[in-house]
Automatic annotation (TrEMBL):
<keyword id="KW-0802">TPR repeat</keyword>
<dbReference type="GO" id="GO:0097730">
    <property type="term" value="C:non-motile cilium"/>
</dbReference>
<dbReference type="InterPro" id="IPR019734">
    <property type="entry name" value="TPR_rpt"/>
</dbReference>
<feature type="region of interest" description="Disordered">
    <location>
        <begin position="98"/>
        <end position="140"/>
    </location>
</feature>
<dbReference type="InterPro" id="IPR011990">
    <property type="entry name" value="TPR-like_helical_dom_sf"/>
</dbReference>
<protein>
    <submittedName>
        <fullName>TTC8 protein</fullName>
    </submittedName>
</protein>
<dbReference type="InterPro" id="IPR028796">
    <property type="entry name" value="BBS8"/>
</dbReference>
<feature type="repeat" description="TPR">
    <location>
        <begin position="433"/>
        <end position="466"/>
    </location>
</feature>
<feature type="compositionally biased region" description="Polar residues">
    <location>
        <begin position="127"/>
        <end position="138"/>
    </location>
</feature>
<dbReference type="GO" id="GO:0036064">
    <property type="term" value="C:ciliary basal body"/>
</dbReference>
<dbReference type="GO" id="GO:0034464">
    <property type="term" value="C:BBSome"/>
</dbReference>
<dbReference type="Pfam" id="PF13181">
    <property type="entry name" value="TPR_8"/>
</dbReference>
<dbReference type="GO" id="GO:1905515">
    <property type="term" value="P:non-motile cilium assembly"/>
</dbReference>
Length: 517
């Protein structure tokens, strides 16, 4: 201790950093940097000034750090104006844009709901499962939402929003490091400072171009022998949308140093280029070198799930659990897979396992309620849903719970309760297409034809990827004698779910009608 005053300030700051108290660490470093620089000779060793500067950049970076591997949201611009399309009409099973009909024997859309891109709903929310690739610009603007907001996803949402705001927090007089006045070439020659500075520019300031310049100079200074810099250049290229250049950098880095992270980055590039089979091969080669690596097995499972090959995905998720039996995503996905395969009792065991692990949220209790209902454990059903309503954080979650309660009410035959539940769903979320569809069915039972038609039209315009509203509208129109509308709706239903027998029978009947005319 210096003169009985407690810890030496730089060591104290380092201690804060180790304990993840980044705000206190940054403040202490600021005080150190404001002192008159005593011995600020720039020799090969760190001076106190340089050490404090480096530590502060790291603390500020950690405060806003988002792991690039999981941070992947494809914006509208990227989806619609994608110049990297490899094949416009890809072979079945080789593209994420056209997930083939269920190759892995998974349940059909009649049992398991699908997202707008035609994939079955997964057991775990990830950016890629939220949006899927829309077919038209109108659909793109209307449907893909981030998990909670009503804004369409743009690539600047989520983790990249902090531009400008975070840097102002650090220092009331302006940003901590003025990037425009930095001599990047000077910093590139000090590898220890350069790495901290790069992460600060990339994550905190979100200035990809300057980060790329620094990385290029530093890798040159390291005579292209430092794999870390190659990975960072790859990350910059990926953010800038130069996927082929990013691929070269990651491959080069892998040759020098085999790292799991680099494999994950490279797979991200292939998935963005819509080459899931290449990504799968990459993961499998990675598993030869890193046997039992959870992130790689999980990556394979995710790709199989997105390609609609549910049984292979489930196998790989089970492999993940052999290595790490507290992996939430795997347990959730296997649970939802069992639920939709008509095994609610087994699904219940998986969700109970999540509860024992300390996951305590609306979605889990909602799923527990459904599993209990279908497993005929009626005593637990309503209490689970009550807990789910209590834990719901926003209106979308509340709407989901009320919608499921409506299903339970239909199941026990209380149609008035079901009607109220679906109405409450729409109060909480006005764009809930499934609730409009189910309300229309209840209205049809009461004989209110016009209301039912209006509700079905709303449902089919909100969610053109669902086959139920189209099919119900076709049946209703056929009953009223409006054969033309019925035929159009039946065709849309067939497009959404080609294997639906009732739709095909209706189309056959209508064609016979038209032949008689």
């Amino acid at each position: 201790p210096a003169g009985g005053m407690g810890l030496e300030p730089l060591f104290q700051a380092w201690s804060y950093f180790r304990r993840r108290k980044f705000r206190e660490c940054a403040d202490l470093c600021s005080q150190l940097l404001e002192r008159p620089p005593g011995e600020q000779e720039l020799d090969s060793e760190y001076s106190v000034f340089q050490a404090a500067w480096s530590l502060k950049t790291r603390a500020l970076t950690e405060m806003v750090y988002v792991d690039e591997i999981d941070m992947d949201q494809e914006g509208i611009a990227e989806m619609i104006l994608d110049e990297n399309a490899i094949a416009q009409v890809a072979r079945p099973g080789t593209s994420l844009k056209l997930p083939g009909t269920s190759q892995g024997g998974g349940p059909s859309p009649a049992v398991r709901p699908v997202t707008q891109s035609g994939r079955p709903i997964t057991g775990f929310v990830r950016p890629s499962t939220q949006s899927g690739r829309p077919s038209t610009m109108e659909q793109a603007i209307r449907t893909p939402r981030t998990a909670l907001t009503a804004r369409p996803i743009t690539s600047a949402s989520g983790g990249y929003v902090r531009l400008g705001t975070a840097s102002m927090l650090t220092n009331p007089d302006g940003p901590f490091i003025n990037l425009s006045r930095l001599n990047l070439a000077k910093y590139a020659q000090k590898p220890k400072l350069a790495k901290a500075l790069f992460e600060y520019i990339f994550h905190h300031e979100n200035d990809v171009k300057n980060a790329l310049d620094l990385a290029a100079l530093a890798t040159e200074h390291a005579q292209f022998k430092d794999w870390w810099w190659k990975v960072q250049i790859g990350k910059c290229y990926y953010r800038l949308g130069l996927y082929r250049e990013a691929e070269k950098q990651f491959k080069s880095a892998l040759k020098q140093q085999d790292m799991v992270d680099t494999i994950l980055y490279l797979a991200k590039v292939y998935l963005r280029l819509d080459q899931p089979v290449t990504a799968l091969n990459l993961f499998k080669q990675g598993l030869d070198r890193f046997p039992g690596e959870v992130t790689l097995i999980c990556g394979i499972a995710r790709i199989y799930e997105e390609m609609n090959n549910i049984s292979s995905a489930a196998e790989y998720y089970k492999d993940v659990l052999k290595q790490d039996n507290t992996h939430v995503e795997s347990i959730a996905c296997i649970g939802s897979n069992h639920f939709y395969s008509d095994q609610p009792e087994i699904a219940l065991r998986f969700y109970r396992r999540l509860l024992q692990m300390g996951v305590y949220n609306c979605q889990l209790f909602n799923n527990l309620g459904l599993c209990c209902f279908y497993a005929q454990q009626y005593d637990m059903t309503l209490s689970s849903f009550e807990r789910a309503l209590f834990l719901a954080e926003n209106e979308e979650e509340t709407a989901d719970v009320w919608y499921n309660l409506g299903h339970v009410a239909v199941g026990i035959g209380d149609l008035n309760l079901a009607y109220q539940c679906f109405k409450l769903t729409l109060v909480n979320n006005n764009d809930y297409a499934e609730a409009y569809n189910n309300l229309a069915v209840l209205e049809m039972r009461k004989g209110h034809i016009e209301q039912a038609r209006a509700l079905l039209q709303t449902a089919s315009s909100l969610a053109p990827h669902l086959y139920e509203p189209h099919f119900n509208f076709a049946i209703l129109s056929e009953k009223v004698g409006d054969l033309q509308r019925s035929y159009t709706a039946a065709q849309k239903s067939e497009e959404a779910f080609p294997g639906h027998v009732d739709t095909q029978q209706l189309l056959k009947l209508l064609k016979e009608h038209f032949a008689m005319l």
